Amino acid sequence: MADSKGRTTILAALTRGRPLISDGAWGTMLQASGLKSGEPPELWNISNPDAVYEVARRYVEAGADMVETNSFGGTRFKLEHHGLADRCGEINEAAAALSRRAAGDSRWVIGSVGPTGKMLIMGDVTEDELYEAFVEQVSALERGGADAICVETMSDIEEARLAVRAAKERTSLEVIATFTFERTLQGEYRTMMGTAPVEATAAMLEAGADIIGTNCGNGFERMIDIVGEIRQAFPEAPILVHANAGLPVHEDGVDRYSDTPETMAALAPKLVAAGASIVGGCCGTNPEYITAIRNAINTP
User: Fold this and answer.
1) pLDDT per residue over 240-258, tens digit each?
2) C-alpha separations of 71 from 50, 93, 152, 214 in Å
3) In the chain, fewer beta carbons within 10 Å around the N or the C end?
4) For the chain, which residues make up each domain, given as ranges?
């Protein structure tokens, strides 16, 4: 299946048998361009669009098959902390349009949707309120030109389920859902809510996600274990991984990451062998990492 610009769907591309390359971290790239601590990065889609476009452009130049949008904290619940809730649609539509311009007609744009910061279990918000907030965001990302929605860095199955539902029911886009897992003292992987990778994957597939996976919290070495666990339980499910550049060490008020581009490149083929279908970076990575990963996986 191809759209009016000739792009196939991501799922259709994956049937060709080669892994796809995603992009890397956005926050650190924007900080390097002058984003101040505490400043909402999503507002830069309006106030500093050239800098946002440049991040996406550099990842495309590095060889990414798809680029995310600068919209991770783009729900009205996150934006209201900065007095921007009423600009949610404008901000997300601009985020997608900037990445779309950088991606051109041959690469995919995946709209980033992160957690709202609201806890259903604590009664902070109702399911209907969460659902409508996600509908508002994903609809704007679709208007701006996104090809897929990436519900990411999730820990609460119910919040993720509502985000996936909103995207499946109210847009025509493919939907990716990824969770962040930490290794326990027993050597198992769980979200901060205690959810195991197989449990999270089952819930997202049931909710309608087209692609599942994991992001943040771990480097490739640990992601290999997580992907293997998911692949064993779900042999056919497409798996996306956005991994950190290893584990962070806090030095002089800054998080520094342990893995170099060469380190991640050396592990990338093992991640693909474990079952990863789409490979990219998260915290601590940049275009240099994406080029190294692409070269290691040797995708044409």
Assistant:
1) 999 999 988 877 767 789 8
2) 15, 9, 11, 18
3) C
4) 10-297
